[in-house]
Design brief:
- With about 160 residues, the protein is an alpha/beta fold.
- It has one domain: Purple Acid Phosphatase, chain A, domain 2, CATH 3.60.21.
- The protein is built from 3 helices and 9 strands, in the order βαβαββαβββββ.
- The strands form 2 sheets. Strands 3-4-5-7-6 form a 5-stranded mixed sheet, with helices on one face.
- A hairpin with a 2-residue loop joins strand 6 and strand 7.
- The longest helix is centred in the first third of the chain and has 10 residues.
Amino acid sequence: MKILIVSDTHGRHETLMKVLRTEEPVDMLIHCGDTEGGEDWIRQHTQCFSVPIVKGNNDFFSNLPAELELDIAGYHVFITHGHGYGVSMGTERLVDEALSRKADIVMFGHTHRPLIADHDDLWVINPGSLSYPRQEGHAPTYIVMTLTVGKEPDFELHKCI
């Protein structure tokens, strides 16, 4: 199963559309928050079977859920924007919460910095930002996750040029 993971698009959809054209076909698109009202547009313009989206700290008037837990291809996935767990100061609280939920993978956004880390059999994933990247070089980033039942998950960080 090929899953596109994005975050922090902040109402700007040009890069997301480019990424979708580059990566298609995908089985799912996961958005880790801060669409800034763009969730309906994203769902209308994707060819994905499923588009789970969580509410970010800038999604003020959104009815999106703050957190989601999904079972995908045998993996328990916890998705949140991350601001409620203080991820700008580190991922310790988020990791503790994900482990308490028996997650195999936790995904978050908010920092606008990509991260792929294996923490005691918990994958900690942040795709960075497609609109306002903050890491060195400031390239917009996203992650392609491939999940296959019975196999280790595969994560590829991609930069948009």
